[in-house]
Design goal:
The complex is a heterodimer of chains A (303) and B (334). Helices cover 74% and strands 0% of the residues of chain A. With 303 residues, chain A is mainly α. Chain A has two domains: 1-82, no CATH class; 84-302, MetI-like fold. Chain B starts with a helix and ends with a helix. Chain B has helices at 2-11, 15-23, 37-77, 95-98, 104-135, 142-150, 157-167, 174-181, 195-223, 227-235, 240-248, 253-268, 271-278, 289-299, 303-330. Chain B folds into two domains: 16-77, no CATH class; 96-330, MetI-like (MetI-like fold, Orthogonal Bundle). At the A-B interface, α2, α4, α5, α6 and α8 of A face α1, α2, α3, α5 and α6 of B. Chain A: One of its GO terms (biological process) is transmembrane transport. Chain A: Its main location: membrane. Chain A: The chain crosses the membrane at residues 37-55, 93-119, 131-150, 170-193, 214-235, 272-293.
Chain lengths: 303, 334
């Protein structure tokens, strides 16, 4: 292929498009046209823009109080390098990280499981109301949670789990997250179950298998890729939630990491290095999940 | 009714087959379901019953927590409940809604909510489309670029609010340091302190967080356009710009609609970011309904007024979700 001076997409240029291309680097560089160079320049400038808040946070998190006041956030932490902000933030956030894990993992698993069961019940069997139920679920995905906060607080204060046990608030929050996670999980599983091959299930029905048996033996094993997508979606959502936790948790010992991070930022308003280190620590689990399961994350986001 | 039945059949390719399977007790069945209405109906009902353990518990939870709570919230908004104690469900009043037009804080936050909704949604779509078009040009390391642009979506708003309050800090933050560095001191404002810039500062940070989402929605749309559409346009001699404007972008309509609904609904409830940056009382320059509602109910214990503001928010969301859910339903996309 000859050098292309326009900015037309070059069909031979990384056709698989997944960036997984370690061959033919030499030849490729030789083919770069001015238009392609401008394209990559633009992409790299955008990378710098998108990473700049993380970059300024990271450099600052490694600087001592004096150093971050005197040097620009653009400067790497060479003078006055310290890991103290990380240690301070970690010791402040440790209990809240544990609370977040104890809340997020079971809530994500339960909402995914309920979503899968509901989607199966609404997809692979036929009755007329299912479309109405699905419309209700779809609308529930988008409802602003402000519209339920006051009743939610009333409801849980009437149930009074927090009076029974000091950890009761966390259980209330867990059940709340499961309930509000069901609609999106159902919609995600539903779109997947519609693509499943119906013949297998049909054949099993003809053999007289019950719906429960078909679910266990056929649908559940086939759902594993979708469970990955849904679990990652729910893990990220619940870990990152702030509003429900703010309304339902009053005992500091039960604070999840988003609440405790906000409290930390409030109490150390002038100490940006501890705030930045704390933000990274609080975000670490979701960043790891994102980096390890990027494809599934993107799938969950686009429904 | 007929179209409803058709769309239901489309929803459910197995419908006839399943019904037949039950009638036939396992032996070859070829009967037409429609000819045996009564029997099929009864069998459908039994299908309904058998599937209940699967969908009923989750549906009951959703009905209770989502729809029950919404209805309860509407009821509370009519009670005038405030302070300690319990709401009085015997006395209903429209007072909460009557006081809204005179409440300057409410008006300011309604205005900010609409401004945020429009500016944030349109800018995120434009930036996201731009990213998608760049990333779609058969570039190397595409997945790396995509991963970086989408990364902010994995972060909690609490985390991003903390990063951005440092970005915007005056005079030490990255933005103002950079402006000083390139000789544009005149533009280095106190972004979060100056009421003129607060809302814009929030919108920019939220665009940073959500444009990657728009990018992947648009990328999925772009990837579903058949290659021959590009080819045909090119054979017609269309320039690149025309190709995108006339051929590609019109085909991204459903991506745009889907992303717009998600962004708008998010904009209505963009509570976390503003609360973490500015607290419960961010001032009229950046107050939005989601924050006002929380402040009235949970800080001032004006429960009924908070509930009434929540009803307004819900109604706004409904004007966005309603048509979307309805068209999805009509198209049989559910």
């Amino acid at each position: 292929m000859t050098a292309d001076t326009t900015t037309e997409p070059e069909p031979e240029d990384d056709v698989n498009g997944d960036g997984d291309d370690n061959d033919e680097t030499q030849g490729h560089l030789a083919r770069l046209s001015p238009g392609r160079i401008a394209l990559y320049g633009g992409l790299l400038a955008l990378v710098a823009a998108y990473l700049s808040p993380l970059y300024s946070g990271l450099t600052t998190a490694f600087k001592s109080q004096d150093a971050y006041r005197e040097t620009s956030p653009l400067q790497p932490p060479i003078d006055g390098f310290t890991v103290d902000p990380w240690l301070t933030a970690a010791s402040e956030l440790a209990f809240a990280m544990l609370n977040s894990f104890a809340l997020t993992i079971p809530a994500a698993v339960l909402s995914a499981l309920f979503g899968s069961l509901a989607a199966y019940g609404l997809t692979k069997v036929d009755w007329r109301g299912q479309a109405l139920v699905l419309v209700l679920f779809l609308a529930a995905v988008f409802i602003p949670y402000q519209a339920v906060l006051v009743p939610l607080r009333q409801f849980w204060s009437m149930v009074g789990l927090s009076q029974i046990h000091p950890r009761g608030e966390l259980v209330e929050l867990l059940i709340t997250h499961v309930a509000y996670g069901i609609p999106i999980c159902t919609i995600l599983f539903r779109s997947y179950y519609q693509t499943l091959d119906g013949e297998l299930i049909e054949a099993a029905r003809l053999d007289g298998a019950s719906l429960a048996r078909i679910y266990r033996k056929i649908v559940l094993p086939l759902s594993i890729p979708m469970f990955a997508v849904t679990l990652i979606y729910q893990f990220t959502q619940i870990w990152n939630d702030f509003l429900f936790a703010l309304v339902l948790l009053s005992n500091r010992a039960n604070y999840v990491v988003t609440l405790e991070l906000n409290a930390l930022a409030g109490s150390m308003a002038t100490d940006y290095s501890v705030q930045m280190a704390g933000a990274f620590i609080a975000a670490l689990p979701t960043i790891l999940v994102y980096i390890l399961f990027g494809e599934q994350f993107a799938k969950g986001q686009t429904m | 009714m007929d179209s409803l039945r058709n769309s239901l059949r489309r929803l459910n390719p197995l419908s006839t087959a399943t019904a037949d399977a039950e009638t036939g007790t396992g032996v070859g069945v070829e009967a037409d379901a429609d000819e045996r209405g009564g029997l099929v109906d009864r069998l459908r009902r039994s299908d309904f019953v058998e599937s209940m353990p699967f969908w009923l518990p989750p549906t009951a939870l959703v009905l209770l927590f989502v729809y029950g709570a919404i209805a309860w919230n509407v009821v509370i908004s009519f009670t005038g409940w405030s302070g300690l104690g319990q709401p009085d469900y015997t006395n209903f009043t429209l007072e909460m809604y009557r006081q809204m037009p005179a409440d300057q804080d409410f008006i300011a936050s309604l205005r900010n909510t609409v401004a945020l909704l429009i500016a944030f949604t349109s800018a995120s779509l434009v930036v996201g489309l731009g990213l998608a078009l760049l990333v779609d040009r058969k570039i190397r390391f595409e997945s790396t670029f995509r991963t970086i642009y989408l990364l902010p979506m994995a972060l909690s708003f609490v985390v991003t609010a903390i990063f951005w309050s440092w970005m915007y800090a005056d005079p030490d933050g990255l933005i103002n340091t950079a402006l000083h560095g390139i000789g544009l001191e005149a533009l280095a404002y106190d972004w979060l302190g100056d009421p003129r810039f607060r809302l814009a500062a929030v919108i920019v940070a939220l665009i940073w967080q959500f444009s990657g989402y728009c990018m992947i929605v648009y990328l999925a749309g772009l990837r579903s356009i058949p290659d021959d559409h590009y080819e045909a346009a090119r054979i017609d001699g269309a320039s690149t710009l025309k190709l995108y404007w006339r051929v590609i972008i019109p085909q991204l309509r459903s991506s745009t609609v889907g992303a717009t609904v998600v962004l708008m609904v998010f904009a209505l409830k963009a509570f976390d970011f503003i609360y973490v940056m500015f607290g419960t009382n961010p001032g009229r320059s950046v107050d939005i309904l989601a924050v006002t509602m929380y402040r009235e109910a949970f800080s001032a214990s004006e429960w009924a007024y908070g509930a009434a503001i929540a009803v307004v928010l819900f109604a706004l969301a409904l004007t966005i979700i309603g048509p979307y859910a309805y068209t999805q339903y009509k198209r049989g996309a559910l």
